[in-house]
Specification:
This protein is of the alpha+beta class. It has 2 helices and 7 strands, in the order H-E-E-E-E-H-E-E-E. The protein has a single domain, classed as STM4215-like, CATH 3.30.2000.30. A hairpin with a 4-residue loop joins strand 6 and strand 7.
Amino acid sequence: MIESKLSISRIEKVLRTVIKTAYTGYVSFSSRPPDVDGGLEDFMVVQVNGSVNGIIATDEVVSGNAVVMFELWAKDKGTCKVKNVDRLIGMRDLLMSIIPYNDGDYKITYKNEVGGRDRLGFHGEFINFNLTII
């Protein structure tokens, strides 16, 4: 069915393909890894951030959109928990080297980003992208 392009699972499959072309680390498509103390130095969480909106005419998707978020996490350095800016910059540069993206069905473009940290010794950058279904 044509409207299957609106499926979150199908979108996540495309996102998995896109990110695995550049990033070889741990990638989750639902939530943070359950055990970040298990030796991970960095990881990504990728998700559709909210709903997928689509306009369907007859049996064809005319257009659609969603926001997808890539959370980039890097383990802090040292006992003082200093943000590992070099690793985060490298992860962001890798991500931005493959986006904007367009495979004829989905187009991904930059939207905005914020940063944060957790209580487990990681800092993160959370980058939102506009996903257009074409």
